[in-house]
Amino acid sequence: MSTLRHAGITIDYQDEGTGDPLVLVHGHPFDRSMWHPQVSRFTAAGCRVIAADLRGYGRSTVVPGDTPLETFARDLVGLLDHLGIDRVVLGGLSMGGQIVLEFHRLFPERLRGLVLASTSARADTPEVRDRRRATADRLLREGLTPYAEEVIDKMVAPHNIRELPEVAEHVLAMMKAAPPEGAAAALRGRAERPDYLAMLAGVAVPTLVVVGTEDGFTPVAEARLMHERIPGSVLRVIEGAAHLPNLERRVEFDAALERFLTGL
Q1: Mean pLDDT, consecutive 10-residue segments, the chain of 264 residues?
Q2: Largest CA distance in the chain
Q3: Distance CA 4, CA 14 (A)
């Protein structure tokens, strides 16, 4: 594991393997360990895989207040500059996918490809923005444990909680360990993100869109909308997965990602 001093904070990251770089961005309220299966799989396949703890999460610096998606995107470009990497395939899940879209808005020249998993390009409605802010306040009052226990069966499909208990335990542990101040700051910043739908027609790099059939946070319809708007994109709908197909259906997710990377 390595650390980077950037913009007054410390970013903890791993950089494994050689070959063409693949950068993976975790969702909320997780950390880079959600990508451990893919780091192992794709370094073995000859990729250089980079996964960082976003500011406010994992072992990176916790910054209270509001953290806009632009800040996360600039942290990522700072990491790429530090590593001497020009262009990457950038993949993210849920909030991580929205950070990928923000990165594309700011730094399209740094991209070779996009992976958008379990995410949405739409801006929040006023009601959803209010709900995110209320959740941020709740996390500061209560910590992450009550929230984590409330949403675990939306993050991981109930049948997968029974059949893949080690996955459910990992997901629950990540959520409970998330620093409340960092998670709340991300929620507030995420509530203010722009709408990316109009930008999608201008995406000029190969794009993979992935979603689970049982995802209650970002339904299949949201993935299909992005697929329809992004020229030449590939859509993979993964049966039996909820919000975390890379963990719930690792074989299927990895196969989709491998086909995508091989075709670049």
Answers
A1: 94 97 98 98 98 98 97 98 98 98 98 98 98 98 98 98 98 98 98 98 98 98 98 98 98 98 96
A2: 47
A3: 11
Q: Do residues 117 and 211 lie in contact, with contact meaning Cβ atoms separated by under 8 Å?
A: yes
Of 23, 67, 29, whose CA–CA distance to 146 is shortest?
29
| Sign of the torsion angle spanned by Cα atoms 39, 42, 48, 49 | negative
| pLDDT of 141 | 98
Q: Which domain holds residue 30?
A: 2-262
- What's the whole-model pTM score? 0.98
Average pLDDT, the chain: 98
State CA 167 to chain mean position distance.
Answer: 17
* Count of positions (residues) in the chain: 264
Number of domains in the chain: 1
**Cα separation, 29 vs 203, whole angstroms:** 28
Tens-digit pLDDT profile for residues 27-75: 999 999 999 999 999 999 999 999 999 999 999 999 999 999 999 999 9
